[in-house]
């Protein structure tokens, strides 16, 4: 499976982000990626006050464009996350995945709200304007099952474990760590989840913008089921493309049988 991760700049003009994505996808065509992945809130500046005004219904203009792009390029498009509004007017941080025909095959609403207050560091309160989702998301592809969650969700090992128990051998995490938690926990978290769950993990961030209200850490990365960083970017815009074989997760699980040796009765 060839996976491309796009670390893009976030423009405040929503549709400009889609235009840039189109350019990137055309550039990527020659490499024939199977799955293309984007960062968290890739078409909305990461600010709680902006989430409601950027929000669209499922099926709205951004959704439709993403679906068409997946079909035109014949790719699985894990379209980072976007701001979604439901019929009741509630707003969610939502990740959609489209298949090669542009059909939506997965939808994950961020379950854990990113409400933190680090003394002398990052403050953020997603719950000011967002509503949490309440589901664990795993979807099927021609390569097997893939798990999906959003940024802060991945700090909760229980969620990743559940995805893996439901068959995921790759977990996609559109994310946006910051200048406080990025250097401390970004790579550590991805490598820990990969090692514990013996699966590939792909974390895709937007590029760093020092002018933005919330400064993203960047460092889009891909980690193997053995915990090796296959590739990690810096903070700039760009794309990484890697070929992975999900059956490698089976090999690691056979050789170092952690998942099968669990003792649920002891853990309670
Ligand atoms: O967990 C972190 O440090 C960052 C989380 C975050 O930025 C998010 O959930 O969007």
Describe the structure.
There is one protein chain. With 268 residues, the protein is of the alpha/beta class. It has one domain: 4-Layer Sandwich (Nitrilase/N-carbamoyl-D-aminoacid amidohydrolase). Helix content is 26%, strand content 26%. It is built from seven helices and 15 strands. Strands 1, 2, 3, 4, 5, 6 and 15 form a seven-stranded mixed beta sheet that branches. Helix 1 packs parallel to helix 3. It is globular and about 50 Å long. It starts with a strand and ends with a helix. The mean pLDDT is 97. 2-oxoglutaric acid binds next to helix 5. Pfam families: CN_hydrolase (PF00795). This is Carbon-nitrogen hydrolase family protein. Keywords: Hydrolase. GO terms for molecular function: hydrolase activity. It comes from Claveliimonas monacensis.
CATH class descriptor name: Alpha Beta
Q: What's the CATH architecture name?
A: 4-Layer Sandwich
CATH superfamily: Carbon-nitrogen hydrolase
- What's the CATH topology label? Nitrilase/N-carbamoyl-D-aminoacid amidohydrolase
Number of helices, where a helix is a run of at least 4 consecutive DSSP H or I residues: 7
Contiguous runs where pLDDT drops below 50 for at least 5 residues: none
Largest sheet: 7 strands, mixed
Order of helices and strands: EHEHHEEEEEEEEHEHEEEEHH
Q: Helices and strands: which structural class?
A: alpha/beta
Please report the distance between the alpha carbons of the first and last residues.
37 Å
Q: List the ligand species.
A: 2-oxoglutaric acid
- Average pLDDT across residues? 97
Please state the CA-atom Rg, rounded to the nearest Å.
Answer: 17 Å
